[in-house]
Amino acid sequence: MCELLGMSANVPTDICFSFTGLMQRGGKTGPHRDGWGIAFYEGRGVREFKDPHPGAESQIARLVSEYPIKSHIVISHIRQANSGKVCLENTHPFTRELWGRPWVFAHNGQLNKSKLRRLKESGRPFYSPIGTTDSELAFCWILDSLRSAFPNPPRRQKDLFLVIRSLCDQLSDFGVFNMLLSDSHFMLAYCRTQLCWITRKAPFGEAKLKDEDLTVNFKEETTEKDIVTVVATQPLTNNEKWNVMAPGEMVVLKKGKVNLSVGKQSNKSKIGV
Amino acid sequence: MCELLGMSANVPTDICFSFTGLMQRGGKTGPHRDGWGIAFYEGRGVREFKDPHPGAESQIARLVSEYPIKSHIVISHIRQANSGKVCLENTHPFTRELWGRPWVFAHNGQLNKSKLRRLKESGRPFYSPIGTTDSELAFCWILDSLRSAFPNPPRRQKDLFLVIRSLCDQLSDFGVFNMLLSDSHFMLAYCRTQLCWITRKAPFGEAKLKDEDLTVNFKEETTEKDIVTVVATQPLTNNEKWNVMAPGEMVVLKKGKVNLSVGKQSNKSKIGV
User: Fold this and answer.
1) A68: which chain B residues are within 8 Å (Cβ-Cβ)?
2) What is each CA distance from B224 to A262, B201, B204, B215, in whole angstroms?
3) How far apart are CA A212 and CA A4, in angstroms?
4) Taking CB atoms and an 8 Å cutoff, what residues of chain B touch A65?
5) For chain A, how long is the longest CA-to-CA vector?
6) Is the pTM higher than 0.90?
7) What pLDDT, on a 0 to 100 scale, did the predictor assign at position A260?
8) What pLDDT is stored for residue B55 in this prediction?
9) Which of these, A79, A178, A69, A83, lies nearest to A132 by C-alpha position?
10) pLDDT (tens digit per residue) in A67-79
11) B44 and A89 in contact by Cβ < 8 A?
């Protein structure tokens, strides 16, 4: 299994604090030794750092922890390999372009690969995996399906979210599927087994990392108008209240807020604010 | 205009020395202040670093200069913007996936954007630019054309090279077009106005950077079997003999060697070893 970390902010914000906590789980306080990666959106562009080596020992991870790269959307992942060998092309997050937007995806869980392969081959194959993980294959299938459903980006964003939610539900039938996905405008978090989030805004307080002896006083680091939401597999701090997502829940994050929960009701998908 | 730097090696090799020289031209000994980027292939995977800030002042560029990332193919670029504002999404190199391979592209020159746009719109649009440069648009058109010509990778690699060469010739009609392109197996260098290369192999000697007071004795850094070719807009060292490419010349680099020159003869393309 792996761990996910995502951030959405209304102003470009660095993720040094949370990333430092996550990296400790990459071979020090956690067993996720098989690589790590992080993607930072800056406007429409993406900046990516990844390494198939343990995050806790990586020189590049140290740079990212110490160098405040400001971003409005971040997706990060540490890997404990279960499908696909440990190498750069199997390291999350994965990136592809659709509609002139850079899509970034990271997955926690494990999917039945032969079922997934059959599903992928049944559609119009536009995207092909570079590596051999179930995760990249699932990502390629999601984008194939979106491209087929919407040759151009749909006018109503909710239509897009509903299709993505139904694709995630289908993937969940093949195993454990928790994911973070972004197109540079929004970030989606889909939870099947484990994902939680916290929104930080004024009045800001102190936060204390679980995995490292590090405390930050966000009051000193922020302005009154800043709003930041952090999503993670497990809470990263031990003195704050994190919202635990329900199995099958999908949330949309925009400008730091969880502003839309694409939930399930009986057999019909429902979008509720 | 911009500057290009590429490397092909038969064993994973670091490019710290040449990259250090190039970065000085990013705002110190040269005017290319509008960003820099570098892509390292490791197996089928790619690791990318880019920054819309001057290379000579970039903390990430310093890490790349000092941290020996070993790779068999590297493509790097420093930018002096002429088309598209200075921002992350306009920073070379650009990456897209085709046939399950990560393609990386960097361009030096300037192309007529309205002619290029008409050309792009006349084909089957698979790839869309994320930023606003002529370069990314040209790259998307190249990949659109390859995907149309070869739904699957062609069996004879020479067929692929001939098509790419003819696409480059077409782009050259729109302005200045020097480029580096790779799919993880080979690297192509196409020269319209300015590009040169050097192959280093045993017996290795000393090399002295033009742009920085730095000398390296490759004898101490290599084994007898190592073969490395470096391609650059201008020679990076001042005590070695670089091969200057002819206008309209394209070379294929594989495992450190320039092993194929896809040349022009009268009106027909010709491949000569």
Assistant:
1) none
2) 61, 7, 8, 20
3) 18
4) none
5) 53
6) yes
7) 67
8) 74
9) A83
10) 888 999 999 998 8
11) yes
With beta carbons less than 8 A apart as the criterion, state whether B208 and B239 touch.
yes
Q: What are the tens digits of pLDDT across the range B179-207?
A: 999 999 999 999 999 999 999 998 888 88
CA distance B45 to A222: 37
Residue to mutate among A86, A87, A88, A150, with most B CBs inside 10 A, is A88
CB nearest to A128's CB, from B100, B126, B131 = B100
Q: Where are the beta strands (DSSP E) in chain A?
A: 3-13, 36-42, 45-51, 71-78, 94-98, 101-111, 175-182, 187-191, 196-201, 206-208, 215-217, 227-232, 243-244, 249-254, 257-265, 268-272
* Residue range of the domain that includes A105: 3-272
Tell me the ipTM for this assembly: 0.90
Q: Is A2 one of the catalytic residues?
A: yes
pLDDT of residue B27: 66
- CATH number, domain at B257? 3.60.20.10
- The predicted-structure confidence for B89-118, as pLDDT tens digits, reads as follows 999 999 999 999 999 999 999 999 999 999
- CB pair distance less than 8 Å for A42 and B87: yes
> How many domains, chain B?
1
